[in-house]
C-alpha cells in the first residue's frame, strides 16, 4: 500500500477518545481501552490509510503479529486470564486496529464477546495510573 496516497498517519478520533496511550512500539501505538470491566489493549499500526491486514506489507504483518504477542504476554503476566481474545473488526472504526482482551470466566460478558454486553466502566484517575504502571512494567520485562 502506498501510505502517501492517504496522507500522513493519524489516530482515528474515536480510538483516541476511547483509549489511553500506553506505548509506542516499532509499528503500533499500544493503547489501553478506557473500560475497567476488562484488561483490554488496542494496537494501532502507524500506517496511513490501513483498514485491513491486507493493507500492510509482509514485514509489517509480521511485526504486527509480534506486537500482538507482546501485548498478550503482558496481559497474561499481569492478570492471568482464562483466555485472551484477539480481534480486528473495524466495523465502527475502519482504521486498522487489533484488540487484545484478557477474559475471565467471571467477567461481565463471559462467555460472549465484550461488545455491547455491559456499559463501559471508565477508569478512575488513580486506577488508570495504576493499570498503566503495571502494564508498562510487564512490557519492559
From TrEMBL:
Its EC number is 2.1.1.-. InterPro entries: HIT-like (IPR011146), HIT-like_sf (IPR036265), HIT_Hint (IPR026026). Keywords: Methyltransferase, Transferase. Gene3D superfamilies: HIT-like (3.30.428.10). One of its GO terms (biological process) is methylation. Residues 41-110 form the HIT domain. It is an enzyme of class 2 (transferase). Signal peptide: none annotated. Coiled coil: none annotated. One of its GO terms (molecular function) is methyltransferase activity. Pfam families: HIT (PF01230). This is HIT family protein.
Amino acid at each position: 500500500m502506498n501510505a502517501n496516497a492517504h496522507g500522513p498517519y493519524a489516530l482515528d478520533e474515536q480510538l483516541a477518545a476511547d483509549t489511553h496511550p500506553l506505548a509506542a512500539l516499532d509499528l503500533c501505538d499500544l493503547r489501553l481501552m478506557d473500560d475497567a470491566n476488562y484488561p483490554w489493549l488496542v494496537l494501532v499500526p502507524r500506517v496511513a490509510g490501513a483498514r485491513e491486514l491486507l493493507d500492510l506489507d509482509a514485514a509489517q504483518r509480521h511485526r504486527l503479529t509480534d506486537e500482538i504477542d507482546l501485548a498478550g504476554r503482558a496481559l497474561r503476566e499481569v492478570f492471568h486470564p482464562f483466555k485472551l481474545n484477539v480481534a480486528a473488526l473495524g466495523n465502527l472504526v475502519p482504521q486498522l486496529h487489533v484488540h487484545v482482551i484478557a477474559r475471565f470466566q467471571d467477567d461481565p460478558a463471559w462467555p460472549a464477546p465484550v461488545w455491547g454486553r455491559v456499559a463501559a466502566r471508565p477508569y478512575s484517575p488513580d486506577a488508570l495510573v495504576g493499570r498503566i504502571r503495571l502494564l508498562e512494567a510487564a512490557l519492559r520485562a
